[in-house]
Amino acid sequence: MIDSHTVKKSLVAIIGPTAVFVAFLSAWYAVAYSLDNNFSPASGKPMIVPPPHRLFEDFSGTVRDRIFTALAISTRTALTGLAISAVLGVLLGILMAQAKWIERSLWPHLIALQVTPIIAIVPLMIRLIGANFTARVAVTVIISIFPIVSNTLFGIQSVPQGLRDLFKLHNCTRLTVLLKLQLPYASPAIFTGLRVSAGLAVIGAIVGDFFFTRGDPGLGQLITFFFLNNLSGPMFITALFATLLGLMLFLGFGLVNRVVVGRWHDSSTL
Fold first, then answer.
1. pTM strictly above 0.90
2. Spatial distance between the Cα atoms of 153 and 99, rounded to a whole number of angstroms
3. What is the pLDDT of residues 204-235, one digit of tens each?
4. In a designed cystine with 78, which of 61, 112, 116, 205 is the match (CB 3.0 to 4.6 A)?
5. Nearest to 183 by CA among 82, 97, 255, 86
6. CA–CA gap between residue 193 and residue 12 (Å, rounded)
7. Which domains occur in the chain, in start order?
8. Residues near 152 by Cβ (< 8 Å), separated by ≥ 6?
């Protein structure tokens, strides 16, 4: 017999997102048709915001090829920056969790890096690195590393004292405690940080494109190009692909979270 509570939860899980999506589309149409848009094909006046059903009218030929090429470049930038952030972030979080003096030494500088506008760092990066792919990756790392460090540190520090004392009674080494207790216990928090940083890595790749225009154009440069040439449809499509890229990375880490953490922690179901 089907559990009514389960059916109710399933309906809520379907109806809620569907209702929000319909409301979003309705608002989009309302904005599109309330602005001074001219939808006549014979008119040379560009649309400010294209309605959803006309979004992909210009998605063919050169426009499509340029968007897919830029998507590949931004994906490579985001993945490279995210990989570096993941390694450095987890290592820094582990290091800071080992001693209070290390945490107190590094934490203020990480916060300062997090709150400093990236545009204030750009001139120095151009001088040191140059306006190239490495600079874009560096921007991605700067923007995406903080959630990984903070969540790793929080997860390790959240290990109950009783479990720490149990390992101490067995005379376990610091490395054993780290590998057998702290990292497994902190893994849900670490994956939460990775999922947050996945979205930030895409933002970093786009922002890096705005600042460093040398080399092949990514999604950021392409958005600027379409905007300056009054190509609203392709501009919105490019932004949509950037959103989908961030969503895919977020869902990817969610899937890895389910595999690694399994069913033993609530975060694996998010």
1. no
2. 11
3. 889 888 877 676 778 888 888 888 887 888 88
4. 205
5. 97
6. 27
7. 60-269 (1.10.3720.10)
8. 89, 90, 92, 93, 94, 97, 186, 189, 190, 193
